[in-house]
Amino acid sequence: MTPAVRARPSRLPHLHNFRGLAIIFIVATHCVSVFDWSDSPVLRDVLGRVFANGTIFFLFIAGYLFHYLSPGFRTVPYWKKKALNVVLPYCIVSVPAIILSMTLMKREGLDPSFYQQPKWQQVLEFLVTGSHMAPFWYIPTIIIFYAVAPILLRIFSSDRAYWLLIPIFVVGLSVSRGENNPILAFVHFLSIWVLGMSCSNFRERADDLLNRWFWLLPVAVIALFLIAFYTTPGTHTWYSDLQKAFLSLFFYTLFNRLGTRADRWFALIGSLSFGLFFLHSYVISTGKIMLEFVVGYQPAGGILSLTIAAIAAVGLTMLAVQAVKRLAGKRSRYLIGV
Fold first, then answer.
1. Domain layout of the chain by residue ranges
2. Low-confidence ranges of the chain (pLDDT < 50)
């Protein structure tokens, strides 16, 4: 390893702040379920489409950082780090959700025979698919990315290999992300990870190109949003994937331009993002139950109410993450990923 490689900073402010925004998107999309949208179905559809697929931002950032830090890559230490900081917290944080999903609050949308299996098989299937909690499908999927990381590095060891991004995008857009199927999700989202890798590999050229065409990126995002809104039902369409890919490039460039000026708003959230990811569903679900208990009904949804709910969910989850960090010290990384 050369001195230049060792001097390479592992924290890039623009990506760190982008990660903070990404988790806000993810929390916001899960706050939509807190409210009753029967009087505003169109607004619910619009907001659902705006915030859906926020995990694409995480995959873009992960792919970028993976390549950026790859000069010092060693397979076994890399896998060990991911096992301790991602897989272990995932298993620990999953325990309450799995217990609830097997007893008091059985999950909907599962195969009818799921609950007829032995308990240990139910637990294993929950962990392998992430189906015990809405956002947890992402963890088994990202684990596959970690597992094949050495292969991806070898494949994309030359600049010309990045031409593969085109067919990978085509294949990904034509394959469903799968319902609780991490292998399908991996194939579906591989293009986003490789897009992040390519932006790192061609950093100077990519940054220059994205800066020159910066204001065309939101035009593409809005155009794809409108096409999806008027032509396709649902929030997880290939239009949405492509739109969030362009939005990833837009936010990447925007935060690159802002530099440390965005730290004030996003740096702390970015630092706690993995903890926020692991705990936010518990906070939202608890808040929803308490709100309905106090009010007596599910409140009507709106832009203001969703904004307040998202801010409250982010703030309360940050407090929960900070509390775990204070109680567990350095071991908190093994409990909640930070």
1. 3-336
2. 1-7
